[in-house]
Amino acid sequence: MVDFLNALVLLGNFVLVPGLAYGSQLALGALGVTLIYGILRFSNLAHGETMAFGAMITILVTYVLQANGVSIHPLPTALLAIPIGILGAVLLCLAIDRLVYRYYRRQRSASSIYLIVSIGVMLITGGLIRFIVGPGDRKFTDGERFIIKARAFKEMTGLNEGLAIKTTQGVTVIAAFVVVALVFWFLNKTRTGKAMRAFSDNEDLALLSGINPDRVVMIAWIMTGALATIAGVLYGLDKSFKPFTYMQLLLPIFAAAIVGGVGNPIGAIVGGFVVAFSELIITFAYRKVFMYVLPENMEPSGMVQLLSTDYKFAVSFVILVIVLLVKPTGIFSGKSL
Amino acid sequence: MSYLVGQDMTGGYGGADILHSCNVSVEKGQIAVVVGPNGAGKSTAMKAMFGMLNLREGRVTLNGEDITGLKPQERVLKGMGFVPQNNNVFTSMTVEENLEMGAFIRRDDISQTMEQVFALFPILAEKRRQPAGELSGGQRQQVAVGRALMTKPDVLMLDEPTAGVSPIVMDELFDRIIEVAKTGIAVLMVEQNARQALEIADQGFVLVQGRNAYTDSGKALLANPEVRKAFLGG
After folding, report:
1. A vs B: CB pairs below 8 A
2. pLDDT in tens, B60-107
3. Between β-strands B80-83 and B155-159, what pairing exists: parallel, antiparallel or unpaired?
4. By CB neighbour count within 10 A (0-12 exposed, 13-18 middle, 19+ buried), where does B168 fall?
5. How far is B108 from chain A (nearest CA, A)?
6. pLDDT digits (tens, 9 = 90+) for B138-195
7. What is the 3-state secondary structure (H, E, C) of A198-264?
């Protein structure tokens, strides 16, 4: 029985807790992607860079706050800086929309053209970010490191295995929950939110109903900038901030959005967790778990790891391919790509 | 002068003209029906009156005011409601939300108008929390008409409201449309089911190749042997 509990704690520590945190980050990212797809009808490949840009501004403001001795110990200081990061990302999104996307909207361009344009936006934004903060790794996490330390957990329960929960993981899950709740409240209860859903559902009819498309597009960018910044900062707090990792995050984020059904906000959330847990479950080494649950002489000799963690992006790719082959509209039947 | 008039409308979607000096008009509290063979420009005439295509010649007036240059959205503000033939509901939104979106331009209390719509289409009240995409074809059309009525329009324009619904549902929809007209709204509709539509029409317009072929009261057109022979199957 104790062995079984040890195995469960082990899984909790290495799969469940990190999966919840990573899944929340992907969910927030996918929500932004899905929002733009729903309203502007294109896959915004620059979303990873929007996340990085918002996170970058947040980090710079965090440095200023730290230098001035501002702190909200035990929470990370970056949380205080997020609003300014959001402002920066929103301004960036609105400026890009004004300078770039609006032109293609007026031309009524095909969504594939938007997609290519967004690659250009991605490269330029990425360059801008590296120009400002450089390509290196940056740690900006401060405050208390753990909510529960592994050793404290062991002492508390008397188990061999410890369950550690980092503050950043706790903050990520709670922040994601609050943000998602706000987004859903906005989309389902407010007049403007309903107008956005209407516009996403049937653009022509929305226009006939007197819904102002420019306003809807503007609000979509504001929400996307905010969501991207929060996702980017949470990811950076949890791991570290490195501009290139955000470009790589694009794949799991798109996998998440598409798995859930692109254009569908609930799908984006579920998709985020599906991708996060698939990555962790497939790249986790189960050797120790089997050591606990199997009789002594049946212990596996290898690591019992399905895929090396180096291949975690392959998991997103495989999920993407399977979904597009089997159910192109995703679990929650979003729009077909 | 009728309430809504499309006068000498000439134009198309960019290429060749589809409408050739076409006249369509409707009076408040009356039903005007545009019928004709396939490709006669019926829907085009309707769209021209709603500002969805540019007229090369001719004009559209609403209550005497020239609205030829206005965009569709601006015409909605002037009191015109339009029910497109296809994709005329927000499928992912509930019936109630569909009606709310119909009233988007209104800033006042819409609950009373919504009750009126529910009184007109009782089935919608029952299904108010259901996504419109889950409803049957006939019920969807009711949502579509209800949505357009939410702005309290003076003119309601319907593009083939009975396309793809069963004859029983069609009769019921026509009954509702008569009720709508009785509240003083001008109803203009394009119909494939020419005979049934002309039966409820105060005014009928038979279009052929973008031109007015016959214009008369619904009854007179039904009685006209030429119209019967050419368009109503004898």
Report:
1. 56
2. 999 999 999 998 889 999 999 999 998 999 999 999 999 999 999 988
3. parallel
4. exposed
5. 13
6. 999 999 999 999 999 999 999 999 988 888 999 999 999 999 999 999 999 999 888 9
7. HHHHCHHHHHHCCCCHHHHHHHHHHHHHHHHHHHHHHHHHHCCECHHHHHHHHHHHHHHHHHHCCCC
pLDDT digits (tens, 9 = 90+) for A77-97: 999 999 999 999 999 999 999
Which residues in chain A touch residue B109, judged by CB atoms under 8 angstroms apart? none
> How far does A249 lie from chain B, in Å, by closest CA?
30
Task: State the DSSP string of A70-110.
Answer: --BTTB-THHHHHHHHHHHHHHHHHHHIIIIIHHHHHTT--
State the best of A205, A216, A266 to mutate against chain B, taking most chain B CBs within 10 Å: A205
B70 Cα to chain A: minimum distance (Å): 13
Rounded to whole angstroms, how far apart are CA atoms B191 and B171? 13
Given an 8 Å threshold on Cβ–Cβ distance, is A191 in contact with B84? no
Structural element, H or E, at residue A25:
helix A17-40
Q: At what angle do helices A191-201 and A213-238 cross, to 10 degrees?
A: 100
* CB contact B52 to A (< 8 Å): no
Could you give phi then psi for residue A190, rounded to 5 degrees? Answer: -95, 155
Determine whether the interchain pair A195/B73 forms a contact, defined as Cβ–Cβ distance below 8 Å.
no
Beta sheet of B186-190, edge-to-edge order: B80-83, B155-159, B186-190, B31-35, B203-208, B211-216
> How many CA atoms, within 13 angstroms, populate the side-chain half-sphere of residue B28?
11
Contact indicator for B102, B147 with CB cutoff of 8 Å:
yes
User: Could you say which DSSP state residue A136 is in?
Assistant: S
Q: Which two tokens stand for residue A54?
A: 């918002």
Closest chain A residue to the Cα of B147, Cα to Cα: A209
Rounded Cα gap, residues A62 and A49, in angstroms:
19
What residues of B are in contact with residue A194 (Cβ under 8 Å)?
93, 97, 100-101
Distance of CA A21 to the CA centre of its chain: 9
- A208–B91 CB contact, under 8 Å: no
- Cβ B232 vs Cβ B36: under 8 Å: no
* Alpha-carbon gap: A330 to the closest alpha carbon of chain B (Å): 16
Residues in chain A: 337
Complex-level ipTM:
0.87
Report the distance separating Cα B91 and Cα A303, nearest Å: 50
